[in-house]
Each structure stands twice: as C-alpha cells, then as structure tokens.
Design goal:
The protein has about 160 residues and is an alpha+beta fold. The protein has one domain (about 5-155). It contains three helices and eleven strands; from the N terminus they run ββββββββαβββαα. The strands form three sheets. The protein has a six-stranded antiparallel β-sheet. It has a three-stranded antiparallel β-sheet with strand order 7-9-10. The longest helix is centred in the C-terminal third of the chain and has 16 residues, at about 115-130. The protein is globular. The two termini are about 30 Å apart. About 35% of the residues are buried. The mean pLDDT is about 85.
Length: about 160
C-alpha cells in the first residue's frame, strides 16, 4: 500500500500531489513533473521554480473515503443509481523565476475532499521542499520522507 498523507502520495521517484492513477504533479529530487499515471507530460527543474501552491478541496468528515461510500450506499438504497458527482480537478500553481505562473490541474483522491488538517500539513511540507534545496534530498527516499515530513507538517499546521 502506498504511503499517503492527505493529497500527498509517496511514489518510487518522489511525492505526488493528487491521484497517482490519474493527473497529478510529482515532486522529484531533480524537479517537478506534471504526470498522467506514470507518464510525465512536462518537467520543470527546481532551479526554475520560485514557489508552488495548491488548494485541494476539503471536508469536515474525518474519513473522506467513508463519506463517499456511505453516500453511495444511501443513494442505492433510495433507488438513485447516479454517481455522487464529477471529480473536479484542482490547480497546482508554480511560480517560475521569471515571475510567470504555470498551472497544472490534478485529480483528487476523493470527490468529498481531504481532511483540513491534512491539507494544511501537506501544504507546509510542499512549502519546505520548495524553499529548501537541502530538504529536497529527502525525495530520494519518498516513503520515509513523507512519514517524517507529515509528522513535522502536522505540528506546523496547527
């Protein structure tokens, strides 16, 4: 099972923002890649990136996956077999050294959104990785990095 924290997932070559089976942005030791599944579509080097921000959807439910399961079951019991809704992508915005912004859309894991505390700590983790070249060395060991950074991110997010 993949190591996950909110919208972040450890992959063999870094941390992904968004659903790794669909559109996502991958933070790697050598740069940031826009990906669909395992295939990179575009790559920017860290030296070309000044900032990276993202605001995934949030929910007050402590278990977003359960919200979708319960909602689907209720709809089925009530006789409505239509899907809960469309998955809406959210933007990951990269500010490059020229000051221009590059926007890549990513797919969330859940229609319902992520726990707010997990989003805040994930944003803090990405902020640290973006601002510190030394911290990006952690991306060579993504699962360990996510575990360690998530613990730090949770404390900093409060």
């Amino acid at each position: 099972m993949a190591s996950r924290h909110g919208p972040l997932t450890a992959t063999p070559d870094g941390l992904a923002i968004g659903d790794v089976a669909a559109r996502h942005v991958r933070l790697r030791a050598d740069g940031v890649a826009e990906c669909v599944g395992d295939a990179p579509r575009a790559v920017l080097r860290w030296s070309d990136i000044r900032a990276l921000r993202f605001s995934p959807p949030t929910t007050i439910w402590p278990w977003p996956g359960m919200q979708e399961t319960v909602g689907s079951l209720l709809l089925a019991v009530l006789g409505d077999v239509s899907p809960l809704g469309e998955v809406e992508r959210y933007p990951v915005v990269l500010t490059v050294t020229s000051g221009d912004e590059v926007t890549w859309e990513v797919d969330p894991h859940y229609i319902a959104g992520y726990r707010r505390s997990h989003v805040r700590s994930a944003q803090r983790i990405v902020e640290v990785l973006t601002s510190s070249a030394e911290s990006r060395a952690l991306l060579r060991h993504p699962a360990d990095a996510l575990t360690r950074l998530a613990a730090v991110g949770r404390r900093a997010a409060w």
